[in-house]
């Protein structure tokens, strides 16, 4: 599997952790990362685009 090979090669190269970012509403990608062993991180990102008004 591609992800297993990637993780193994990263480990051999000395990588301790692999981080990724996913759009909060991209459920398919979130499910993929969950299926290969990723867990939610302890941080959350936030972005503000000045001048853009969000109406809820």
Question: What's the short version?
Answer:
This protein has 56 residues and is mainly α.
Structural description of this entry:
It is a single chain. By secondary structure, the protein is mostly helical. The protein has a domain at 2-35. The chain has helices at residues 2-12, 27-35. It is elongated. The chain starts with a helix and ends in a 21-residue tail after the last helix. The mean pLDDT is 89.
Task: Describe the secondary structure blueprint for this structure.
Layout: H1 2-12, H2 27-35
Secondary structure tally: strands: 0
**Basic shape:** elongated
Order of helices and strands: HH
Q: How many DSSP H or I helices?
A: 2
Low-confidence stretches: none
């Amino acid at each position: 599997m591609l992800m297993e090979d990637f993780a193994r090669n990263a480990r051999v190269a000395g990588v301790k952790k692999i981080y990724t970012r996913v759009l909060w509403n991209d459920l398919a990608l979130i499910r993929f990362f969950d299926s290969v062993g990723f867990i939610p991180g302890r941080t959350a990102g936030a972005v503000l685009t000045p001048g853009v008004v969000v109406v809820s």
